[in-house]
Amino acid sequence: MSAPLACVALLTLVGLLTLGAACSSSSEGDSTSSGGVPTSCDQDNRKDVYAQGMSKQGTSFTVRVLDATPAPPAKGTNTMTIQIVDLAGAPIDDAVVGVTPFMPDHAHGSAVKPVVTPAGSDGKYAVTSLYYPMAGLWRVTFSVTLPGSSAAQDVAFQFCLDG
User: Fold this and answer.
1) Which domains occur in the chain, in start order?
2) Are 159 and 78 in contact (CB under 8 A)?
3) What is this structure's pTM?
4) Structure confidence at residue 3 (pLDDT)
5) How far apart (Å, rounded) are the C-alpha atoms in residues 127 and 68?
6) Cα–Cα distance between 31 and 85 in angstroms, integer?
7) Which N-terminal residues, if any, form the signal peptide (predicted)?
8) CB of 143 closer than 8 Å to CB of 153
9) Burial of 145 (0-12, 13-18, 19+ CB in 10 A)
10) Which 8-state DSSP code applies to residue 126?
11) What is the DSSP secondary structure assignment for residue 41, as one 8-state letter?
């Protein structure tokens, strides 16, 4: 075999091996990008699975997600109704509630600031303008300042949104 032909054959073989490696999938079902970040919501074990009534407990209160539109949360504009109760389950009205959506894998939030308003009594609050501009894992942090307190406490849910 001549030197130029051998070189072409070698480059072809290297190219085929590289292409094969790029297109192969792991038998382990690895769904991570080269940075180790999961790329599929189905495989992302960091997410909370949305369910009506799901809750997260803080130091002195619990936040319950009573409903969401759409449900489960999705890319685009979302709304939620949450309820804040003390550790005994009594509703907490008149809390100051902030909501911060943040995408940890991309280190950014949303350009749209969510709006929180009291939704009657029983510790219910409406969250509107909850905007997720892209698919992926989103951490939604609820910062709650209880009546009579000056310090906010945080609880966070993590939702993985499909594209």
Assistant:
1) 46-161 (2.60.40.3340)
2) no
3) 0.76
4) 58
5) 9
6) 38
7) 1-21
8) yes
9) middle
10) E
11) G
